[in-house]
Structure formats: structure tokens, C-alpha cells
Design goal:
Helices cover 26% and strands 24% of the residues. Helix 1 crosses helix 3 and helix 3 crosses helix 4. By secondary structure, it is α/β, with parallel strands linked by helices. Bound molecules: pyridoxal-5'-phosphate (PLP). Pyridoxal-5'-phosphate binds next to loops.
Length: 349
């Protein structure tokens, strides 16, 4: 193997979607596949979910939506979280993020999702815009309003008071608007209890195996494996150093494996000196700095390892959440950073 191999288990993703669907019943469960399905490949992932019965997909950008429509064909709803100009993408469903969006799209009609901001202060109608729309809801009557949605800011912190506050604001907002199906929970929101169920949940990360309940056991199945090839193995004497900045010094005669992946492939430089690769059932500590295309590991205690074999960077022993914790980030960023230079293999559902 000359390049790293990213294996995406579509079966695990479909099982995760089914698990979330059972949890959220009778409400439906969409799939958020923005950012190329969190770096895993929107087309193969969405096709597997579509075959399993998923009927609603969310992307961020219109171009992502157009590509997804080409991959999925007609049928499922493909909603664009960032919205788009009226008429620009007739086969996609815009999320309307302001009163101006509502008025512009109402002039033309068509499907839409209305986004109410209840505490994220990012996108969506604010309180004053909601007042104006509630006072004059006529534009909504000209739209095929598929859902009214809001987005939780702190769903991964179950005790955060903003969760209940956002839910209450959302219910109050919906009560002031013409009746329409509602969409509330993201992945973590699905685990906040029955009060956070709605007509359509919008999980992303949990589908891909990231823990939606941080600090508690992960209820989801891991869907990603990353293996990188060993290019060379060298012996160095005690006292020698490895890599840029000479940050790692051998305390004993050591075997150093140099692997063909670096921060340009999304193995973040913040992981320098942190975590490990796995080969032959043992852990090889990552040593020295992660460089652009190469990363080094202490394989002294895996004497049978040879160049051409691989180290597993993401797998059962070290998943995206674990790597993220070491890097001071979240699993989402580990997945979306995974680079374009890996070969990709999709295990069928
Ligand atoms: C990204 C996103 C989601 C999915 O969030 P996860 O935490 O990955 O489940 C849902 N809704 C909106 C509006 C989003 O931007």
C-alpha cells in the first residue's frame, strides 16, 4: 500500500440511522450529510441511507445539494441549510434563515423550511422577525412549508439550561405560526429525552459513529477505519532525536516507523507526540512532530512490523473522539479534516 486507506462502513452508518430512528419514532430521522458527509463521502453514504429508507437529507451549500440530487435521483427531500436565491435550485429545498428570505421565496412559492433562531444566534429568524411574521403570516401561505426548524446550541450538555429554554422558545414560536411539521434535535438532541422529539430529527455526527453523549458510553457504532502505510523503519541509537524541532529523543535503542500521512491528510499537527498507531495488536506511540506528509511512530516493541505493512490510526482502539480529545478538538473536526490523498473503500450496507 502506497497511500493511506480510509474504510467507511456504510452498514454501520445505516445501523446507526436505524437505531436513531427507533429512538425517535414516530418522528422521522433525516441524515445531515453536509461537508461531504463529515468527510466520509456524501454520495455513497447517502445512497446507503436512501436504500435503508431515509427520505430527508440536509447539506450546507447549494452545490452540495445539486451533487447529492445527481447521486440520489428524484424522491428524497434535499434541504440546504445555508439557503439560496429563489428559483436558483428548483430540485432543492431552501432553509429560510431570515424574514427577507421568507418574503423573497414567498413571491415565487415552492417548498421551504423555516428556521427560527432560539438561542444559537447564527442563522434563522430572530425574535423581532418572528414577531413580524406572526403579525403577518400571509407569505407563509404562499409556500409549501415542509418544516419549521430550530437548532440546539448545547445539546451535548444535557444539564445546560439553554436546552429547555430553546425548546420552550421553539414551542412558543410554532404556536404563533400556521401549523407545520417541526424539526428540532441534532444527534445529541436525540438523547435529551422525549421532550426533544419532533416530526424530523437532524442527526449528523452520530450517524458516523461520533459519540452524541460525551462523557457517557458511546451508543453509536464506529463507522471509520484509517490505516496508513509504513514507508521505512530505521534503528536509532539512544540519545538520537526524531523529526522537526527534535522534540522526541530516544531513551533506548529504538525502531522508528515513518508513515505516509501527515497534517496535510488531516492527521492534525496538534497530535504531535500524542496517541498511537496499532499493528499486530500492539500500540506504537506517535513520536515527534506530525509533519505535512509523514508521521513517525516508536515501533521498538513491535519487532515483526515491516515496511509496506500498515498502522491503524483510527479504529477500535483509537476512534475519532479519542484522537480529538488528544488534539484538543472534537471528533467532527477529525473526520472533516480527513484528507483527499487517502484511498477510500466503502463497505456495503
Ligand atoms: C450540522 C447540523 C446538524 C447536525 O448536527 P450533529 O451535531 O452533527 O448531529 C443539524 N442541524 C443543523 C442546523 C446543523 O447545522
Amino acid at each position: 500500500m502506497e497511500q493511506g486507506l480510509l474504510t467507511v462502513d456504510c452498514g454501520a452508518i445505516v445501523r446507526n440511522w436505524r437505531r436513531l430512528s427507533a429512538l425517535h419514532a414516530p418522528g422521522a430521522v433525516a441524515a445531515v450529510v453536509k461537508a461531504d458527509a463529515y468527510g466520509l463521502g456524501a454520495a455513497p453514504v447517502a445512497r446507503a441511507l436512501r436504500a435503508a429508507g431515509c427520505a430527508h437529507f440536509f447539506v450546507a451549500h447549494p452545490a452540495e445539494g445539486e451533487a447529492l440530487r445527481a447521486a440520489l435521483g428524484e424522491g428524497p427531500m434535499i434541504a440546504v441549510l445555508d439557503g439560496f436565491a429563489p428559483g436558483a435550485h428548483p430540485r432543492l429545498t431552501p432553509v429560510l434563515n431570515s424574514l427577507a428570505d421568507v418574503r423573497a421565496h414567498a413571491a415565487r412559492g415552492g417548498e421551504a423550511i423555516l428556521h427560527i433562531d432560539t438561542g444559537m444566534a447564527r442563522l434563522g429568524l430572530d425574535a423581532a422577525e418572528l414577531d413580524a411574521l406572526a403579525a403577518d403570516p400571509a407569505p407563509l401561505a404562499r409556500l409549501d412549508l415542509r418544516f419549521v426548524m430550530t437548532h440546539l446550541a448545547c445539546a451535548d450538555e444535557p444539564d445546560h439550561p439553554l436546552n429547555a429554554a430553546q425548546r420552550a422558545r421553539f414551542e412558543a414560536a410554532c404556536a404563533r405560526l400556521p401549523a407545520a411539521p417541526r424539526s428540532l434535535a441534532n444527534s445529541s438532541g436525540l438523547f435529551l429525552g422525549a421532550g426533544f422529539r419532533s416530526d424530523l430529527a437532524r442527526p449528523g455526527c452520530a450517524l458516523y459513529g461520533i459519540n452524541p453523549t460525551p462523557g457517557r458510553p458511546n451508543p453509536m457504532e464506529r463507522a471509520v477505519t484509517l490505516e496508513v502505510p509504513v514507508l521505512q523503519i530505521r534503528e536509532i541509537a539512544a540519545g538520537e532525536t526524531v523529526g522537526y524541532g527534535a522534540t522526541w529523543r530516544a531513551a533506548r535503542r529504538s525502531r522508528v516507523a515513518t508513515c505516509a500521512a501527515g497534517y496535510a491528510d488531516g492527521w492534525l499537527r496538534a497530535l504531535s507526540g500524542k496517541g498511537f498507531g496499532v499493528a499486530h495488536g500492539r500500540r506504537a506511540p506517535l513520536i515527534g512532530r506530525v509533519s505535512m506528509d509523514l508521521t513517525t511512530f516508536d515501533v521498538t516493541d513491535i519487532p515483526e512490523l515491516r515496511p509496506g505493512e500498515t498502522l491503524t490510526l483510527l479504529g477500535a482502539e483509537q476512534d475519532a473522539d479519542a484522537a480529538a480529545a488528544l488534539a484538543g478538538t472534537i471528533g467532527y473536526e477529525i473526520l472533516t479534516a480527513l484528507g483527499a490523498r487517502y484511498a477510500r473503500r466503502y463497505l456495503p450496507a
